[in-house]
Write a structure and sequence with these properties.
mainly alpha; Arc Repressor Mutant, subunit A; 4 strands; 11% strand; disordered N terminus
Length: 171
């Protein structure tokens, strides 16, 4: 049985009286399921392109943020990328080894370490961002600019809703 057919099967749900009640919620009607599938497709397409240029998927997200805000401290960078601090340390170690970043301790607060792109890391921007644009362009084929803009607005609102706790603990 295919994954989609399995996911579309009715799942039993306990109702009053202990009898199972059929629940119908096909994957095609689930925004979360579709966003996850789209994310995985985007990730695969991007990974195929960036790994050929020596950048790992783990490094990509940090580069993407640092190209816009170089010099963030490690905690800020971790938050913007959405990674735990231990995961950030591992990624930054590999980036430092690849000479993409350098770390610099804060002069005002010795506990903070700021992350700066090296020239090599900065040069990658001109090579890598066109690859990300290419993936987005391929994904957007057959979708109007207006629909694409509306989708981005809707996704941004959904992210805000879920991150503000509106999606937590409610059944």
């Amino acid at each position: 049985m295919s994954q989609t057919k399995r996911a579309n099967r009715a799942a039993p749900k306990s109702g009053d009286g202990g009898q199972a009640e059929a629940v119908d919620y096909p994957t095609a009607g689930s925004t979360g399921f579709l966003v996850r599938a789209a994310n995985r497709a985007f990730q695969r397409a991007l990974e195929e392109r960036i790994t050929l240029r020596g950048v790992t998927p783990g490094q990509w997200y940090f580069l993407r943020v640092l190209w816009e805000q170089d010099g963030l401290n490690q905690r800020e960078l971790s938050g913007l990328v959405g990674m735990t601090e231990p995961t950030t340390v591992v990624a930054l170690n590999s980036m430092e080894k690849a000479k993409l970043i350098r770390r610099q301790r804060s002069t005002s607060d010795k506990r903070k370490v700021h992350i700066f792109l090296t020239q090599k890391g900065k040069r990658l921007r001109g090579v890598m961002l066109p690859l990300a644009r290419e993936v987005n362009d391929i994904a957007g084929q057959g979708v109007s600019a207006e629909d694409n803009a509306a989708m981005r607005r809707a996704l941004a609102q959904m992210i805000d809703n879920l991150e503000m706790g509106k999606g937590r603990g409610r059944a």
